[in-house]
Amino acid sequence: MDDASNAHDDTGQPQGEPGEDGHSRNLRTILLLDICDSTGIVERLGDTATAQLFREHDRLVLRLQQAWRGRLIDRSDGLLLLFERPMDGLGFALDYGQGLAGIGKLRDIELKARAGLHVGELLTWRNSEESVRLGAKPLEVEGLAKPMAARLMSIARPGQILMSAVAESLTHRAVRDMGERGLALVWKSHGRWRFKGMPETQEVFEVGEPGIAPLRRPIESAKAQRAVPLWRRPTAMAAEAALVAAIAVGGWFATRPPPAIAFSERDWVVVGDLRNLTGDAGLEDSLEQAFRISLEQSRHVNVLSDLKVRDTLARMRLAPDTVVDRDIAAQIAQRDGARAVILPTVSEVGGRLRMSVEVVDPHSQATVYAHAADGKGEASVLASIDEVTGALRADLGEAVAQIDKDSRPLPEVTTGNLDALRAYALGQEAFESRDFDQARRLFERATVLDEQFALAWLGIVRADFSQVNANAALDALLRAKQLVGHLPAREALYVEAWAARFLSPADATGKWTELARLYPDFYPGQGNAALWLYEENRFEEALPHVRAAAVSQNPLLAVQFDTEGRILLALERYEEAAAALRRANSMSGGSIRRLVGLEAAQRRFAQADAYLKQLEPGDPYAHIEMASVSVDRGDWAGARNHAANALTSLRDSRGLDSRYLQVPLALSEWLSGDQAGAEKRLLDAADGSLEALSKKSSADAQDDAATVLAAALVLARQGKGRQAERLVSEVARYPRLMETPPLEELATVVRAQQSIIAGKPGAAIEQLERLLSGWERYQTRATLMRAYVANGDHEKAIREAGWLQKRRGLAYAELECGYCLQALNVFDSTLSVRQEARSLDALGRPEEAAARLAEFEELWPNGAPAYLR
User: Fold this and answer.
1) Which of 145, 399, 521, 745 is 20–30 Å from 101 (CA)?
2) Torsion of CA 720, 722, 726, 728, to 10 degrees
């Protein structure tokens, strides 16, 4: 029993084996602490008050000894304590610093300590009872570890905890044992130092809590200096001092010193989940969202979206609600190519709310920069967020002038109502989880709490568009436009671009390309610029935009690959289109329709059939390609069935798609020989779209106008010039809408077809040739071919027929009113072969004509449509 007792010290911790000389060798953690400016404290407080302070200090030390299992060895010159575990020593030092601050606050003075922590081998021995009675310490401690800890303490600044590399390694690994507090600690290396009496240089680390740790270089002294190369020492460089000074001063004014992280303009950062140490759970969502909004005002720093972070968590096989702490955020940053991790924290210090932020290197997980801002009450926290985000933007190399230019105060661009901000943040979470109904309700709640909250109105717009409810989105969009002065600059341009679609459609493409140019890493801007250019057949211009958006940081990456594939299909770059579409389909499974068109455009119908089998029969939009491929093969009855199925599969029989899907059905009815039924259907579809256009606010105005013109074109092809003329005249009552390039061109094509019917092919040719810009639509060329034939210019007709046959990718990919003219384009791509044969025959080239006619008959083995027989 006695032997067992002697094997432990007074703290109950095991001791080393005693040597022959009575000494014990132990591997222990040694902590040295010293209160800064203790003499000045006595002068300010006086002897009595100081004595009371130190009695309270002693109680603090005793309490912490018990909490952290430490043994006090000496207090003659500061505190010297031993610990079994490095984490216990660190915990003591952290709590000691906070305890001192509390003691000082009661006396309206600032109390701080400097600390040195080291792990090493120590010699310990017990003094005799007689020696202790005469004033000796019960336990003596010596060894190289003791002066090492003393050197660390001596160079520490007030409030700074310094530790050796050995101690840092052991504590950093075990930091999770301290729970949430341990994960919140900030770490910084201060490089290697030379200590007097130490044979080798030692790396010095600092550890502390956000907003408290100084994170500054320790103080050099005669006994401790930074280990720098010889050429950097002033004594070795005296002769060159003047030259170096001149170069340094000139270099400083010529270029800014680079940040510690190799961060360049438009590099990416990962924002970790906000750590809320206040105990008020209501602050978490609202302040995290506010922090993102403030940081996203920067054009220098790109913030990885929450949606992309959750996507990366899924690829890491982690739950979507995994806390994005230092470690997880660093892993995400390395996977997604981000240069830095940003860790925000909100805490309550001395009755004030503190917003602090760390910038962390994702590879070493070391804190590179740290900033904090304090304020009184919740009303101050938004200003604190602006302060710390401005500081970290400067750390990452953004010019101060640019920060001032691009930044507006958070209450101005969001809301000063934290409840409204929380509702908005929860709406964002619901939106990213694709719960659009819940997102809309939360965004609406935010606008009820603060009707001037422009971002919340914009959230309603996004939720409605995501549910394909453009008409519902329009009211919220117009409200957001009224409040555009309350939006960050980027979001203001975003609202202006969307509003242009409805208020001045001809300007929309320019608005999107302007947004993409000013904010090249704002993917909604790049993606929509690509789509609007695509709709205008400006495919070469659209490609750079869609490729700028098709990067790993974009959470909608599959959508961008799908758009890129469609653009490349329209350019007949089939191999590239296949690669993009297959990649999109592997990510989302939503590009089967495009792959059908890709194969059919190359007349690889066996491959197209394989994709057709993968389409959902209940998907009304899948029947668009089904009908077009049937037309391509000359299967008029099959085309009619598929086009009819598209309509019967619709959930809403009164929406936009219920109108434009009538056009391919009417075409297939006409090709099947039901001209009267086709005419009635086209007029019903057009009149329905005209009725929708007559309403004051129609979000589908451009598509409805295209539906009217598409119906008019098919009617004109049937020879129904009077009905076509009426429809063109009706839609011309909307001049701002008709300034949109695709609509203006389609109206010209209908008029040209009417001129052909009226026996005026020359007028038609004049109208159509003006449209040949390289962006012209497929039906422009098809109508021009017919005009040349009617005018007897068969050489030019053959040229146009060749163009139509080569541009089958465009026939399938061209976008207007939900691909409502796709089937007609495909029909004309094959019909042009027949017309080429006829024109060759008219030119006296019967052999060539016969070959082309045989090819035509092979393409449509069941025969031409009824109206051509």
Assistant:
1) 145
2) 60
